[in-house]
Amino acid sequence: MTLRMELADQLLASPPHLSLEVGSDDWRVYVLGVSRIGADTFVQLALVGPRFCTVMTRVRAALDADSKAHEIVILVRDWLTSGTRATQAFLESRECASVPV
Q: pLDDT tens digits for 5-52?
């Protein structure tokens, strides 16, 4: 059994932080970690649905946690509806698009 599958099994034994319905698929969303670095917040998520995925999101740090959470949900929903079959992703809000060095 792989570490990814072990994590998925452990998560399924816990209630999700959020449930999303995307198309005909139900997804259980778990927050694995949150870090604020400078003006940005990074949130690591596990998604359990038709497949198991891990996603790192990057959004601007905000005093309003609800608006930050809403932005993350939109990023995840858009990624899931994109048709990708990937199991890992790094999703950035437009405000955080990496600036070339």
A: 677 777 778 899 999 999 999 999 999 999 998 889 999 999 999 999
Provide mean pLDDT across the span 70-98.
91
Q: Are strands 52-60 and 88-92 parallel, antiparallel or unpaired?
A: parallel
Per domain, the residue ranges of the chain are 3-95
Give the position of tokens 């003006």.
39
Long-range own/partner contacts, residues 73-80 (CB < 8 A, 24 or more apart): 73/18, 73/20, 76/20, 76/29, 76/45, 76/47, 77/20, 77/22, 79/55, 80/20, 80/22, 80/25, 80/27, 80/47, 80/49
CB contact at 8 A, 81 and 63: no
d(C-alpha 62, C-alpha 28), whole Å: 25
Within 8 A by CB and 6+ apart from 34, the residues are 41, 42, 43, 44
